[in-house]
């Protein structure tokens, strides 16, 4: 009788990384649906293109690194990176802009650092930041105007050819400044009431954007409910942003109002899907609170006083830098100990 | 309603308890052979007090611990001691250890017993002695001798006595069934322990997934002050530290024992064993064991004689050999796999899982850690499992220790939830083992250094004492010393004055001259006499004489040197040189003599000095 010899525990919960990532993808679908309904086919095409390219570049680099390709492709992490880029890039971003973003994300930000689990920076955000600073025009003029699929959005074929064609002549008629961009640049010379006349704001907070953000919020709550992400990062992120807005920007004739910060731009996608990337985030509860709050504060600072209308990528990357430091100083207090052992051995609290 | 606290972390693995609670506890019966390991407890192994061939009675002590911590081992039934030898024993390493093998005679004949009806009339020490003599060691898993546990340090008063009926680990139902069927015995045992410890609070913690046990225990504690605390089902609520936190809100200090915060935990099975030891004078010769898993048709709980091989139990539960993939002793979270089914049931064995490969499948290949912190969410000790994993993997043990590696209770919750199926607990065991070994080596080298330093200090001290003695003597016997020194110097000077080469040449020269002279006179006076015999004689004689003189001088010098050395005189060096030279001289003289003797035999007249 050959009995299996194995070290305890013998039971394992059946929720591998691949399934965790699959849940992330599923939870993002309501947001993608909202994007498609309110802004047309652009995001969906981007998502498919980015995921395909992400898988292809992941496979290529894994082959180059002599790693088992199928084993790592099956973990779905490259697909998530592609998905996040597809969701966050402008709807009419030309194919090569998203291509550069995806290839940078997978090859440079993820695999050159050692692959899954070893990247200090959020790969999708590295790709995004790179194309944002390299191709600022393509990244700011290609946002679709809020036009529902049933009322005004360009058709699937037109969108596809626009994204994949060399010249983007048709695109001007379908694009519009984003609400955050519009508010930021007009408020200096106009009153809030005047600024909000612009069609990009619509009847509620920000036409289309509000639904997209609410859909991502719903997906995020699903992830928290499934315990795939913890509440700490998104709550600290949104709370810090709200506190900043209320404390420093409570004058709508000068600064964008809180509801615009929360429901426009990439806020909810950033809070629940991007900042919560476990590899590049802080680990302890306290650390996650600091990390999330840091991102919320930085986004507010850059949106309000910086050059960019949105700032999820830069804020996440800046806080990624701080993660090792945060982790060192925020370990939990272990059972039976008076206080947490912070820092390194032989120093504080040793 | 008892106030409850929560502990952080924890997991909810599938319970898999219903399979083995459908039928009442069955008697496993007397096996063909009983294998009784001598060490079933923490501490010193028991020493055998029977011989091969002896007939032993049921309940008879067959091994005992004379000095140090430990409890005796008893024969679980009557029979003949067949062997005392190494057999495979329950241990994660699959090792063998000394066991007494008994061939039961089927009569199940008891030894003489003296039950106690009212233990309150006895001295507490007497009762503790009875518990020890009954061989009772913690039956929850660790096997710590119960009588020692019931004697907390003098300065620690146990205020809360907890009976651990949580049985949080999946599959295991031994305590559940014990409480259902033997509630009154369990409570009686608890009362005995409470009488010994005199706590102000006595509470039985049971997870809410055992409603029958809760009912039975509630009945049994009617009219007493014992509380029944129904706690939420969450693994590892039955961990000693976690149960204490749930029931008292207190934490056992790191590196401390529960008595440090006035708490003690005892196991349900232990309580029943204590009750039987006092009221029935029955030592710990049987226990309740769960036999479960998908490879047995008829899972259940059995009252098993200690020493019964696992194979007998598997047969009793209807093992389907073809399906068996893995045999786990204990639960699926903390139990260990058995290498063979010949291993006997011991006092700490509560469950055997005969698992199929679908039931407890081999874990998928390890993937990279994605830092998801699910492990930290699950950790009941609030550790950072993923950081501990990095440091263990990178052999940065100092950092792992800094993050409280040694507070890990190896409950397996982190490995259970890990989406990358990293065997985290194995990494921690490895790191702990490495650190323990490093510590042992450090201790060893520290001791070696201490010994060396002590020796150096001793030598230095002796040297100083010698110096002091010498000075004293030199002062006291200054004249004698001076005189001796003068003599010694004179002798040394003499010794030195003679150049050995010249001396040798002179010796040879002398010998030659004498020889020539003698030869000429002899040739003149007695030419008829044979030359060979006579002419060499005086030469060799003189050489011998010289040799003797040189030897005598050498021995004198050596004597002086010894004396000088003993007195730490200043002229030791000089004398040593002189002795060496004299020694050379003696050697040369001896050589010359030998040469002279050799040359006397051949016909040649002229001896060559070289």
Determine the fraction of residues in helical runs of chain B and give it as a percent range: 40-55%
Largest beta-sheet characterization of chain B: 6 strands, mixed
What is the assembly state of the chains in this entry? heterodimer
Shape of chain B: elongated
Structural write-up:
The complex is a heterodimer of chains A (350) and B (610). By secondary structure, chain A is mainly α. Helix content of chain A is 59%, strand content 0%. Chain A folds into 2 domains: 16-177, no CATH class; 178-331, no CATH class. Chain A has helices at 17-39, 42-64, 69-73, 77-88, 95-111, 123-134, 136-140, 156-164, 179-186, 192-195, 209-225, 232-248, 258-263, 267-274, 285-305, 312-329. The longest helix of chain A has 23 residues, at 17-39. Among the domains of chain B are: 115-281, Rossmann fold (3-Layer(aba) Sandwich), CATH 3.40.50; 374-435, no CATH class; 479-525 and 532-600. Chain B contains 17 helices and 17 strands. In chain B, strand 13 (286-292) and strand 14 form a beta hairpin. In chain B, helix 13 runs parallel beside helix 17 and helix 16 (537-566) packs antiparallel against helix 17 (572-600). The relative contact order of chain B is 0.09. At the A-B interface, helix 1 of A face strand 15, strand 16, helix 8, helix 10 and helix 11 of B.
What's this, in brief?
The complex is a heterodimer of chains A (350) and B (610). Chain A is an all-alpha fold and 350 residues long. Chain A is 59% helix and 0% strand.
Topology (elements, then pairings):
The complex is a heterodimer of chains A (350) and B (610).
Chain A: H1 17-39, H2 42-64, H3 69-73, H4 77-88, H5 95-111, H6 123-134, H7 136-140, H8 156-164, H9 179-186, H10 192-195, H11 209-225, H12 232-248, H13 258-263, H14 267-274, H15 285-305, H16 312-329
Helix pairs in contact in A: 1-4, 1-11, 2-4, 2-5, 4-5, 4-6, 5-6, 6-16, 11-14, 12-14, 12-15, 15-16
Chain B: E1 26-27, E2 34-37, E3 47-48, E4 55-56, E5 61-64, E6 73-74, E7 79-88, E8 96-104, H1 124-133, H2 146-149, E9 160-165, H3 174-197, E10 201-207, H4 211-220, E11 227-231, H5 240-248, E12 263-267, H6 268-279, E13 286-292, E14 300-305, H7 310-316, E15 326-329, E16 336-337, E17 351-355, H8 374-378, H9 385-393, H10 397-402, H11 413-417, H12 424-476, H13 478-497, H14 500-525, H15 531-535, H16 537-566, H17 572-600
Helix pairs in contact in B: 3-4, 3-6, 9-12, 13-16, 13-17, 14-16, 14-17, 16-17
């Amino acid at each position: 009788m050959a009995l299996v010899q194995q070290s305890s525990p013998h039971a394992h919960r059946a929720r591998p990384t691949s399934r965790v990532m699959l849940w992330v993808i599923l939870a993002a679908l309501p947001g993608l649906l909202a994007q498609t309904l309110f802004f047309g086919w652009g995001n969906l095409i981007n998502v498919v293109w980015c995921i395909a390219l992400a898988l292809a570049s992941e496979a290529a680099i894994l082959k180059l690194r002599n790693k088992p390709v199928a084993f790592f492709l099956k973990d779905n992490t490259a697909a998530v990176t592609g998905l996040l880029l597809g969701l966050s890039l402008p709807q009419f971003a030309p194919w090569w802009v998203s291509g550069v973003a995806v290839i940078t994300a997978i090859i440079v930000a993820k695999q050159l650092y050692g692959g899954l689990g070893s990247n200090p920076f959020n790969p999708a955000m590295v790709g995004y930041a790179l194309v944002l600073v390299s191709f600022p025009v393509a990244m700011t003029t290609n946002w679709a105007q809020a036009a529902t699929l049933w009322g005004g959005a360009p058709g699937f074929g037109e969108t596809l050819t626009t994204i994949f064609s060399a010249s983007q002549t048709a695109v001007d008629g379908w694009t519009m400044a984003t609400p955050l961009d519009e508010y930021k640049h007009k408020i200096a010379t106009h009153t809030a009431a005047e600024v909000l006349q612009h069609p990009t704001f619509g009847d509620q907070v920000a036409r289309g954007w509000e639904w997209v953000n609410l859909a991502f919020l719903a997906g995020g709550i699903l992830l928290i409910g499934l315990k795939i992400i913890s509440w700490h990062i998104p709550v600290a992120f949104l709370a810090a942003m709200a506190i900043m807005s209320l404390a420093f920007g409570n004058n709508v004739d000068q600064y964008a109002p809180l509801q615009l910060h929360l429901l426009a731009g990439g806020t909810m996608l950033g809070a629940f899907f991007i900042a919560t990337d476990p590899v590049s985030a802080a680990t302890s509860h306290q650390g996650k609170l600091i990390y999330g709050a840091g991102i919320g504060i930085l986004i507010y600072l850059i949106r309000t006083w910086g050059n960019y209308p949105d700032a999820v990528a830069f804020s996440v990357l800046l806080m990624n830098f701080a993660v090792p430091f945060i982790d060192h100083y925020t370990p939990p207090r272990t059972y039976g100990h008076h206080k947490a052992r912070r820092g390194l051995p032989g120093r504080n609290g040793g | 309603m008892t106030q409850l606290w929560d502990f952080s972390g924890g997991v909810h693995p599938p319970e898999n308890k219903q399979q083995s609670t459908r039928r009442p506890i069955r008697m496993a019966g007397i096996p063909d052979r009983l294998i009784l390991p001598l060490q079933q407890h923490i501490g010193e192994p028991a020493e055998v007090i029977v011989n091969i061939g002896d007939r032993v009675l049921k309940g008879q002590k067959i091994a005992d611990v004379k000095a140090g911590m430990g409890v005796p081992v008893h024969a679980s039934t009557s029979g003949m001691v067949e062997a005392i030898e190494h057999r495979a024993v329950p241990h994660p390493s699959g090792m063998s250890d000394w066991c007494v093998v008994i061939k039961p005679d089927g009569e199940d004949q008891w030894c003489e017993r003296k039950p106690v009806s009212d233990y309150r009339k006895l001295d507490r020490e007497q009762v503790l002695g009875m518990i020890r003599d009954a061989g009772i060691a913690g039956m929850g898993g660790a096997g710590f001798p119960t009588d020692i546990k019931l004697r907390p340090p003098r300065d620690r008063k146990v205020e809360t006595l907890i009976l651990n009926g949580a049985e949080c680990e999946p599959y295991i139902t031994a305590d559940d069934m014990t409480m259902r069927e033997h509630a009154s015995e369990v409570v009686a045992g608890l009362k005995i322990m409470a009488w010994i410890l005199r706590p102000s609070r006595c509470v039985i913690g049971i997870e809410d997934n055992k409603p029958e046990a809760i009912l039975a225990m509630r009945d049994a504690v009617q009219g007493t002050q014992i509380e029944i605390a129904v706690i939420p089902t969450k693994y590892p609520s039955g961990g000693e530290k976690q149960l204490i936190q749930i029931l008292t809100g207190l934490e056992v200090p790191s590196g401390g024992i529960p008595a440090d915060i006035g708490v003690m935990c005892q196991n349900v099975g232990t309580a029943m064993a204590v009750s039987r030891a006092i009221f029935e004078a029955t030592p710990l010769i049987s226990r309740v064991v769960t036999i479960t898993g998908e490879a047995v048709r008829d899972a259940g709980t059995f009252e098993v004689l200690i020493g019964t091989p696992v194979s007998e139990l598997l047969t009793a539960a209807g093992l389907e050999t073809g399906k068996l993939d893995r045999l786990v002793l204990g639960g699926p979270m903390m139990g260990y796999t058995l290498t063979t089914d010949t291993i006997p049931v011991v006092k700490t064995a509560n469950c055997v899982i005969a698992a199929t490969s679908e039931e407890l499948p081999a874990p998928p290949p390890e993937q990279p850690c994605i830092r998801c912190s699910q492990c930290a969410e699950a950790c009941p000790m609030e550790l950072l499992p993923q950081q501990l994993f990095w440091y263990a993997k990178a052999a940065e043990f100092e950092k792992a220790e800094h993050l409280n590696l040694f507070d890990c209770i190896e409950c397996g919750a982190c490995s259970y939830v890990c989406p990358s199926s990293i065997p985290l607990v194995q990494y921690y065991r490895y790191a702990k083992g490495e650190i323990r070994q490093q510590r042992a080596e450090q201790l060893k080298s520290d001791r070696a250094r201490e010994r060396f330093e002590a020796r150096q200090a001793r030598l230095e001290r002796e040297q100083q004492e010698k110096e002091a003695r010498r000075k004293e003597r030199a002062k006291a016997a200054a004249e004698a010393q001076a005189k001796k020194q003068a003599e010694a110097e004179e002798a040394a000077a003499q010794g030195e004055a003679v150049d050995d080469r010249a001396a040798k040449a002179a010796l040879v020269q002398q010998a030659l001259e004498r020889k020539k002279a003698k030869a000429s006179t002899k040739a003149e006076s007695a030419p008829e006499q044979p030359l060979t015999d006579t002419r060499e004689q005086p030469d060799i004689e003189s050489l011998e004489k010289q040799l003797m003189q040189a030897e005598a001088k050498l021995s004198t010098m050596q004597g002086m040197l010894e004396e000088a050395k003993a007195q730490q005189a200043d002229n030791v060096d000089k004398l040593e040189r002189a002795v060496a030279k004299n020694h050379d001289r003696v050697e040369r003289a001896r050589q010359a003599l030998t040469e002279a003797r050799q040359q006397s035999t051949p016909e040649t007249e002229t001896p060559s000095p070289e």
